[in-house]
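Quick note —
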Amino acid sequence: MPKIRTGIRAAPKSQEKQLVDDAKALSANPLVMVPVCTEGFRKDPFSKLRRAVDVFNGIPAGEAGDRMLSRFAGGKGLVSAIAASVIIAREEKLPYIAVARLPFGDLTYAARGKIQRNFLVAAQHWRDPRARVLGVADKAVKHRLNVYATTERMTCSPNGRPAEEFYDFIAGKLGLGKTDGGYGCGHDGVTSLEIRVASDDKRIRICKHCAKKSVSTVAQILPYVASASQESLLTARVLVHTARCDDPAYETRVNRDAPLDKETMRNYVLGRAHDAEIIEKGEASARGAIIDEGGRLFVLDSVCYGENADAFLDALGPRSAERKGLYAILQKLEEPLLLEGASASKVLELLWGAHGLDALNAVTCNPKLSQSFLGLKDNPSKILEEAGAEAEKAARLSCLPGYDRLPPLAEFADRVARAYTTGGAKDAAREVEKHAAASDVKAAAYGFLLVLGREKERAWQYTGNEREYGEFLASYADSLLRVRGEEYHDALVAFYRAAGGTEEFLPTKKR
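Predicted structure written out below.
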């Protein structure tokens, strides 16, 4: 039971009146201070106390009764404390009062003789179940009992478990309702804190969303109980709900219990740890256990996808390059991936250090190209996009023959054609403009501009003859931009000859 610290001072009138009124009410019903024990005890552990307290129901008024009360009040225990309260009720006044500082608040009481303070507090504040149960704490320890206090009465049972009325009382205090198997906030399918009293089958559950950062539910319950083993009377565990699993094979793997270790439970009992903190520790413990067990497992935003990488990626909603890269990573991953509020980009950042090259190879299909991008200091999603674009350019260019050397006019046409292949009309037009000033390619340049639809904005740069010759070359330029493979060389030669070129050239032989 908690230690009581006191300080003596004069009683204010308002407090004096309240204590006198409570003393009068106790005089009318002193047996409220004695627990009611359910059937099953070989001998009622409180029968002796009940007989002693029942005497107060027959004490006469007047001097004879006062002498009896004075004699009863000369001891140290609960009976003496009750006698002291009856005396207060008869005299309608009290001497100096003291203050008992308890875990649940400060209580004033009238000190008297040798009576121990916890008994005086119990008798004078009997309306508060937390104070009243202090009066039988010694008996609970002596007989190894659990005594449970409610507003109406105190109870005990042979098996040490609380009566239904105690659960109803505590549930009302905590703002909980009845649920299957006990009491709780009623929120299923979410991580919850579960508390049991004396290993009872009934459970008190509070979900992570209802758990408070300033409240220890165990510390709130214990003041209503007197027990020989109070710190071990209540047990708690966190029922961790990591994710919703459609596949039963993964249910027990991701959703599990997290019992509290002795030190955490002790801090919880003493009110040094709150409900929300206990749940957070339980979730962290369960998460660590899942990761330590290893094996592929994908969980995103409280949904379990098992080892189904496609479904997991669908939920992430990645872009094309991100999906290719992530899929390659997930196929090689051998540990659980438990994520909340993550995007495809964030997942890539998380896994890039160990698996970046796998992602790049999946996008580029070119190990050498992948290595050139691996060392870039940028967002992995952006790196994959750029690597993918570069790989696509390389793939397109692979459809065109290569040349070791070309005549200037043919080289110009080849550059424009390759720019068109990798970047479309915009890149091709940019390539034309780079070389358009050279007099030997101006007619050819205008021919390409006609095909690309860019001639109007540049027509002023060309003479009438250059424009006329360019119009002639336009059909050859159009053919060159559209062909691939072996036909490309023929189209390049045709354009070169039509533009006035006479030199011979051939593609580089592939090895």
